Amino acid sequence: MSNNPIVYINETLPSGSIIIKHTEANHLIKVLRAKPGLKITVFNGTGNSWEAKITALERGQLTAEIQKQFPFEELPGKRLTMAVGVVKGNRMDFAIEKAAEIGVYSFIPMLTKFGVVNPGSGRLKHWERIAVSASKQSRRMRILRIEAVMEFSRVLENVKDTTIVYFDINKKALLINEIADFVAQKNRITAFIGPEGGFSEEECELLDSVNAKCLLLGKNILRTETAVAVGAGLLTHYLSRDSYDYSPQYD
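RESULT FIELD:
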């Protein structure tokens, strides 16, 4: 992939000329001062990306000509899902942003016993916009999947065929580095992270009943969004440590 400015387009397989409007056009025009001739990278969030050249700027929108397609970003063989107790305000935004940047495959906002927030249905669109922005920043061609808000019990049922871990400081648990080898051998990991009040005793018992491993991220109590960033970073590293290509991803 080139180091061009990145633009998200909601098209399956663009060809020829494309029209860039709204938020993406505003960013190119007002922030990057884009002019005809500028090369950009466009992506649709499904692993496809293309190099395009801006050919015209008119009335707040841009026209660009597709030049070539970049190599397809395959679905990762190893995938991490984060099931996270919903927290207040922009703290959930931060958690989603960092999960997207780090490379989490999917994110499940979760309602738990000690949770104090039940977001409205319109919040999902807001979170999806954050995931798009984070993908652009991290040059990730697959957008983080954000599921609809679910009750704890439904989440547990939906992910029962994956390897489950959860973070809880209120009981005897393993430090996350103690299971590095165990995680490296798995293909699908679901990590449960509670809200401000943590998980209830009943929720911990349900997790234990499906052989979930209880983990610690250290001796300090972390905010939910901090635990997402730290936990996702470590688990993603352990999952991919034997296969990841650390060379620069530019032409």
